[in-house]
Amino acid sequence: MEFKDYYKILGVPRSAAQDEVKRAYRKLARRYHPDVSKEPNAEERFKEVQEAYEVLKDPEKRAAYDQLGSRWKAGQDFRPPPDWDTGFEFSGGGFTPGDAGGFSDFFDTLFGRGFGGGAGPGARRGGFRARGEDHHARIRISLEDAYKGSTRAVTLRVPEMDSQGRVLTRTRSLNVRIPKGVTEGQQIRLSGQGAPGMGGGAQGDLYLEVSFEPHPRFRPEGRDIHVQLPIAPWEAALGATAEVPTLGGSVEMKVPPGSQTGNRLRLRGRGLPGSPPGDQYVEFRIVTPPADDARTRNLYQRMADEFKFDPRAVKET
């Protein structure tokens, strides 16, 4: 997937104010409109200009795009960093997936799949009152916070436009209660933390979508937890009792005789809490001791001579 330099497409600097972005768009849209343009590739260029303007006209999308940095060049192979938009607070308005027809994969990857949340009700109006818009943000938490529940400080970046039409980002901090057993992708609703209402209308809500920080040991899948357990060759062959880490502390588990790398056992109820709780799946990985001295090499040679075992032999069925 190619990186799109939206500023280069519109011919404006990254510091351009919104009215400068708008003027550049109007000029290029007139130049490349397929109904009137004689330029080669006018339709393709017109779509590029529309896509660039869709992002740069919106303070929220523009601020998120800007935080990717200027190190990427147009046409360069691009993959967005994991959770690239984490911590940005968005209103979720101004764009619907239907507007993106014909836009690039680059746009769709960044903004077309639930950008800014998108859950929860929008503004509701009645008379002269209007309920404030709901806002959305993504946050990252640890698996341990999800398992035990916690209260943690969260700092969000809120894109805004100043009086000169420049996009700025202010920060705000909130103390957020992380529910015990929350899963990745689940949303935490903070009542009244969205946009202010009008005419005495209620303030909108803030929806925080949860993602998990990478864990050095555990891999979550819904409420289930996956972990690899290294075992020695003799434990795999003869069976053993091994200590297995879980989010709730270590437990003992029987390794059946004849276990192989990739075999799995389930520890019921040892995943994330819930109704019902998740399970933990333990996958065995046989680890071979290094042959780094004469005694060990001789032992391995004896095994090779006595077993006559070919692990690549195909068994006929």
Highlighted features:
25% strand, alpha+beta, flat, HSP40/DNAj peptide-binding domain, 13 strands, 317 residues, 8 helices, 4-stranded mixed beta sheet, 3-stranded mixed beta sheet
Under the CATH scheme, the architecture of the domain at 218-307 is: Sandwich
Mean pLDDT: 86
- Assign a percent range to the helix content: 10-25%
**Rounded radius of gyration (Å):** 28 Å
For the biggest β-sheet, the strand order reads: 8-9-13-12
CATH fold name of the domain at 218-307:
HSP40/DNAj peptide-binding domain
Distance between the termini: 45 Å
Low-confidence stretches: 93-99, 117-127
CATH class of the domain at 218-307: Mainly Beta
Strand content: 15-25%
Largest sheet: 4 strands, mixed
**The CATH homology group name of the domain at 218-307:** Urease metallochaperone UreE, N-terminal domain
Model description:
The chain has 317 residues and is of the alpha+beta class. It has a domain at 218-307: HSP40/DNAj peptide-binding domain (Sandwich). Helices cover 24% and strands 25% of the residues. The longest helix is centred in the first third of the chain and has 15 residues, at 18-32. The radius of gyration is 28 Å and the shape is flat. 23% of the residues are buried.
